[in-house]
# Entry
Amino acid sequence: MQKKNSKVYIHPTAIIEDNVKIGDNTHIWHFVHVRKNAKIGRNCNIGKDVYIDAGVEIGDNVKIQNGVSVYKGVKIEEDAFIGPYAVFTNDLYPRSFNREWKVIPTLVKKGASIGANATIVCGVTIGKYSLVAAGSVVTRNIPDYGLVMGNPARLRGFVCICGKPLKEIKRMTKRFIVYKCSSCGREIRIKRKDYERMLKESSRVS
# Structure
């Protein structure tokens, strides 16, 4: 294991394999298992019973709650939140006897939040500052600021950087829809194609 300095906290019950890199001020709690060659950034909090597979990359300021499994091929960028017992996959055609399977990568972009018990099917990109509702099963890419829910998860709206739902449209152009957050006042620009996808997928929900 490689640590930048003594500010890293690792609980005595955690298992940290060889060549793991852990950034300053990161806390790793009870019964966590971090496999070889994983990278964990600064100011992260890795909760009880988390499994981080070989070669996984986790950025700065990431919070991973209890019981999460992050398998090989997953990359989590800075400021992301992974809720309790969420799980990632890395094989689209799993068989216990398959010796030639390929790792299918998954990317969680900056500031995204994944709710409790969500399942992320491999091969998707979860956009920056997007929000996956608890219990959702994600099978498609999620746009930046997208709010998805359900099984399979559908795009139901958009959220602000602060996490609150965006409801007020400030202006519309040929390429973008600009929302104003009623909570923090930020203006968030959404691609029109993502907005049109949201309208289509929301209309399918009974």
Q: What stands out?
A: The chain has one domain: 2-160. Residues 192-203 form the longest helix (12 residues).
